[in-house]
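Figure 6 in text form: structure in, sequence out.
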């Protein structure tokens, strides 16, 4: 069990470092004024400061459920469990399914793989292609594991996004094998073109759908959630209660107040999508101009660009770039097997346009001189 390489990198950088490493949103886009307004209102109420129920505030769950229903995925407040970030949701589910085998994508999200390892789940990884998981291998694997963890929208780290056809195929395979899907979706609302229907919406009783406000509003709130059948939610509650009784009441109340006018979040998401799309386009342009040997797929949403060089050892590059104030994450960190010393995941949301240009210029100079 190793600590996340990304967290270790984040610990050794300072304010002057250009970081393409973390999965951090753009701070300048946090809707601070509106969150401040919501905070001012709720801090005056005494029950904001009191213990709360373990599922999470009813009104907040109800609002999250309405957003699902609006997207065509019929959901009630009872189907929602508020968690302390979606990272806690992953831990709760890993605890719930402890000691089992689980089919995952390769590459996959480090935080999920660590939770699985800690809870003794045996991961079977299947290659992900640019339109989703390799269906033939997935089918074979799920017959044995009966459990899978997938990130269908703008995957972390690869940014790959499942086509509608693969979403339906995966849903059919899960259902026909009487299996369970854990669908992790923190990037779903950061789309540049269209919003995709979740795989879970085709199999509401065979799925746990995870969401988060970290990437869209603010990670500091630490508010995520699980959407599942009421029976499943009731079982997860036991684990949730033994971890922290309930997620932070202050954060839940701020968020609940912020969401009281649903259009506010929708408008904010439009700003975010527009800004991130421009940054992604700019990052790609800089890569194409200055690092043409780096091959990648242009993201349809999310926060990352993932690709590889033909013959550059990115660990050697990272050692030099760290000394020159630029960091990124080698793709190998997201793999359980099959070494990849040539791949990189770049985060494009947390740097300014100037930093993007400067950072890629430095990488280009290190490679080409
Ligand atoms: C795929 C995925 N799942 C879950 C998380 C955890 O997010 P949070 O706990 O902030 O909601 C992240 C964070 O980067 C992620 O990329």
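Output sequence:
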């Amino acid at each position: 069990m190793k600590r996340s390489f990304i967290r270790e990198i984040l610990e050794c950088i300072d304010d002057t470092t250009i970081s393409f490493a973390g999965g951090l949103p753009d701070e300048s886009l946090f809707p601070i004024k509106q969150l401040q307004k919501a905070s001012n209102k709720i801090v005056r109420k005494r029950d904001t400061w009191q213990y709360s129920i373990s599922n999470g505030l009813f009104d907040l769950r109800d609002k999250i459920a309405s957003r699902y229903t609006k997207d065509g995925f019929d959901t009630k407040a009872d189907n929602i469990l508020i968690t302390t970030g979606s990272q806690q949701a992953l831990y709760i589910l890993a605890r719930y399914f402890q000691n089992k085998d689980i089919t995952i994508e390769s590459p996959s999200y480090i935080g999920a793989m660590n939770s699985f390892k800690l809870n003794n789940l045996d991961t079977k990884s299947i290659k992900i292609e640019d339109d989703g998981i390799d269906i033939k291998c997935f089918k074979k694997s799920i017959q044995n594991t009966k459990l899978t963890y997938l990130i269908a929208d703008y995957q972390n780290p690869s940014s790959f996004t499942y086509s509608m056809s693969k979403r339906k195929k995966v849903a059919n395979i899960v259902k026909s094998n009487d299996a369970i899907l854990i669908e992790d979706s923190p990037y779903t609302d950061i789309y540049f073109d269209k919003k995709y229907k979740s795989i879970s919406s085709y199999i509401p009783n065979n799925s746990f759908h995870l969401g988060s406000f970290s990437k869209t509003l603010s990670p500091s709130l630490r508010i995520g959630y699980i959407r599942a059948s009421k029976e499943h939610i009731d079982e997860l509650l036991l684990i949730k209660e033994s971890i922290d009784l309930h997620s932070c009441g202050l954060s839940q109340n701020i968020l609940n107040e912020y969401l009281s006018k649903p259009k506010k979040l929708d408008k904010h998401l439009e700003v975010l999508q527009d800004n991130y799309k421009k940054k992604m386009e700019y990052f790609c342009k800089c890569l194409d101009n200055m690092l043409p040997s780096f091959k990648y797929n242009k993201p349809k949403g999310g926060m990352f660009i993932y690709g590889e060089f033909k013959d550059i050892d990115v660990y050697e590059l990272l050692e030099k770039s760290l000394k020159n104030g630029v960091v990124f994450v080698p793709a190998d960190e997201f793999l359980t097997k099959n070494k990849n010393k040539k791949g990189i995941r770049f985060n494009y949301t947390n740097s300014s346009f100037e930093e993007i240009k400067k950072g890629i210029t430095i990488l280009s100079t290190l490679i080409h001189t």
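Caption detail: The first strand starts at residue 18 and ends at 19.
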